[in-house]
Write a structure and sequence with these properties.
This protein is α+β, with helices and mostly antiparallel strands. The chain has eleven helices and nine strands. Strand 2 and strand 3 form a beta hairpin. The two termini are about 25 Å apart.
């Protein structure tokens, strides 16, 4: 086993850390309060190559490995999970899916612009009655010969109003159930395609989450990804990689909260000494550090599995399940260590606590991860 990062990975990690501190940190509280999308920051992330990290350079990507992507996600998430989820969706759910399963025409038309950050994408699976149960798609894509007609509603879509390209999962043949589902590329501005109101969320308030409404939206058949009926498999394969990105986000949120709590504990005094000298606080920090390191190894292992061509369904699910749990527990303890100041926005930990919760929900809830894990270990 080699736990060392390569020189290139260390440079990428440092670049992400510098960007997070210099560009994301200064207005992160203001963006959170105003629910303001980090438009300028996203543009800069595109310039740095963070939006198409694993895409082949011939399509404008950085051509890096999954571990490098995880390192960037971790560093960005320490400061601003709203920005990191944009990176996660564009890399894991949009670019990866297009590059892996798209046609050459689709790659040249969409992937080259997505990977450079010229535009960003959105992944549209969840519906009012089809969140964890992704097979219960009510959105339909009726085959009309040379095109499909989409009708339905998608919920909780990250990059909902900021994306230019949407990968939409819809039911074409109900009788075939999950084998009758297709994945279609829909462009912003298509006739009948409406973006609903922005969700007023608990956390990741800087990312724009919307409902999407499709009223007789025509999509040419050349915009279908894969063969007819491949949509559900496409969604599941794409989400398996997306879990690694969200696991890295959870890891970063936890690590960011821990670093703030550690620093605060060395500055704040109570009963005549820094609170880090009190065993109650020191033991909290010890638990936080240990759990974060354990989560980090799970996340890095999942990335390693993906890079080495191994099956990463199990390792990705375990990484997301545990890292999201650690993110929630660590941020709560970070607030506790800060005491009353932890309840104040200026100290950042309350925002990290709010941001942590979503990592246990999106890209498959913790309960869904347990289903994935249990099925995997029971069929061995």
């Amino acid at each position: 086993m080699n736990f060392s990062l390569t020189e290139e990975q260390e440079l990428i990690q440092q670049a992400a850390r510098d960007f997070a501190q210099n560009d994301l940190f200064p207005e992160v509280i203001e963006r959170d309060e105003a629910q303001r999308f980090p438009k300028e920051e996203v543009r800069k992330m595109g310039e740095l190559g963070f939006l198409g990290m694993m895409v082949d350079p011939k399509y404008g990507g950085s051509g890096l490995d999954t571990l490098s992507y995880v390192l960037v996600m971790e560093e960005l998430s320490k400061v601003d999970a709203s920005s990191s989820v944009i990176v996660s969706v564009n890399n894991s759910l949009v670019c990866w899916g297009l590059e892996t399963y798209g046609t050459e025409e689709q790659k040249e038309k969409y992937l080259t612009r997505l990977s450079t950050g010229e535009i960003i994408g959105a992944f549209c699976l969840s519906e009012p009655e089809a969140g964890s149960d992704a097979t219960s798609q009510k959105t339909t894509a009726i085959d009309k010969g040379d095109h499909y007609v989409i009708n339905g509603t998608k919920n909780w879509i990250t990059n909902g109003s900021s994306a230019e390209v949407y990968l939409v999962i819809a039911q074409t043949d109900k009788d075939k159930k999950h084998k009758g589902i297709n994945a279609l590329i829909v462009e912003k501005g298509a006739e009948g395609f409406e973006i609903g109101p922005k969700e007023n969320k608990l956390g990741i308030r800087g990312s724009d989450t919307h409902s999407l409404i499709f009223n007789d939206v025509k999509v040419p058949k050349k915009n279908r990804i894969g063969d007819d009926g491949f949509g559900f498999k496409f969604a599941m394969k794409t989400l398996a990689g997306g879990r690694i990105g969200i696991a890295a986000q959870a890891l970063g949120i936890a690590a960011g909260a821990y670093e703030l709590a550690l620093k605060y504990s060395k500055e704040r005094k109570a009963f005549g000494t820094e609170i880090s000298n009190h065993q109650a606080i020191a033991f909290k920090l010890a638990d936080m550090h240990t759990q974060i390191e354990a989560a980090r190894h799970l996340v890095y292992k999942a990335a390693w599995d993906k890079d080495n061509g191994n099956d990463y369904d199990l390792s990705g699910a375990m990484a997301k399940l545990y890292a999201s749990q650690v993110a929630m527990e660590t941020t709560v303890e970070a607030v506790q260590i800060h005491g009353g100041n932890g309840f104040v926005k200026d100290y950042h930990v309350e925002r990290l606590m709010r941001d942590a919760k979503i990592t246990q929900i999106y890209e498959g809830t913790s309960e869904i991860q347990k289903i994935v894990i249990s099925r995997s270990i029971l069929k061995r």
